[in-house]
Amino acid sequence: MVVLTVIAILVAMAVLRYDRALEQSRADIAAADLRAVWSAQRLYWLENRAYTADLTVLQAAGLLDPQIVLATSGYVYQVSAADSSTFTANATRTGSTRWSGAYQIDETGLVSGTIQATGQLSLVPGFQ
Q1: Alpha-carbon gap, residue 74 to 89, rounded angstroms
Q2: Is residue 44 part of a domain?
Q3: Which of 4, 39, 51, 67 is deepest in the core (most CB within 10 A)?
Q4: Domain that holds residue 32
Q5: Residue 54 falls within a domain, yes or no?
């Protein structure tokens, strides 16, 4: 009985760490996707001297992976351009009852924001 109790405790701890590691990998993918949007926006700006507020325009120009536009990874991506010289792209966590939050990137290439869950430390992208 003692052995089974110890094993159950170890398995419970492992499941919590696995869940956090899985969510961290999703967060890192979202940050990488935002970097792809940033790169596509920079290339679009070189051609048009303005940023676009539409991800499908970047996809149609062959600058952005369609998977980012389709948002099949647990994040929804949006981009807004206030004027021709600035933009902000957001990756908002969806499809999870436990994790929520968003990451942002602007024309400078700085990724910011956090993803959080009750009782957990906030997740930030593992690279900058």
Answers
A1: 16
A2: yes
A3: 51
A4: 2-116
A5: yes
